[in-house]
Amino acid sequence: MAYMSEEGYKKLLAELKELETVERPKISAAIAEARDKGDLSENAEYDAAKEAQGMLEMKINKLKMVIGDAKIIDESKLKTDSVQILNKVELKNVKNGMKMTYTIVSESEANLKEGKISVNTPIAQGLLGKKVGDVAEIKVPQGMINLEVVNISF
Questions:
Q1: Domain that holds residue 25
Q2: Where is each Transcription elongation factor GreA/GreB C-terminal domain found (predicted)?
C-alpha cells in the first residue's frame, strides 16, 4: 500500500491519462510508419518503435499498480505533535548547525528539488515518531548524523 496526498494521487492519474491518450497513439503511429517501410527483419526503426512501446506499456502498468495500491491520506486528520507522513519537518544538524526542511511524502511523490523526501529514506525513517526537540541519530552512507527536530508543520 502506498500512502499519498490527494495532490500526488491526481498527478499520477494525469500522468497515466497522458501516457494512454497521447504517448500510446504516437508509438502506434511510429510502428505503423516503420512497418510500411518494408522488410521488418532489417528495419531498425521498427525495432526501436517496438522497444519504445514495450517501455511505455511497462510504465503504464507500473503506474496502474501504484494507483491501485494508493491510499489517500486525509490531511485534516494529520497532527504535528510528532513526525509523520506529509509533515514538513525543520531540522538542524547538531554537528554543524546547518538547517534544512523536508516534507515527508510517499515514494511516488518524492522530489528532492522540491524538498520532498520519500518516507522510505533513512532520514525519514529515523525521523518518524520524533517530537520537536528530539534528536534523531540516523545512519546515512557517509556515516551517522544527528538531526534535531526544530519544527513540525504541514
A1: 1-70
A2: 80-153
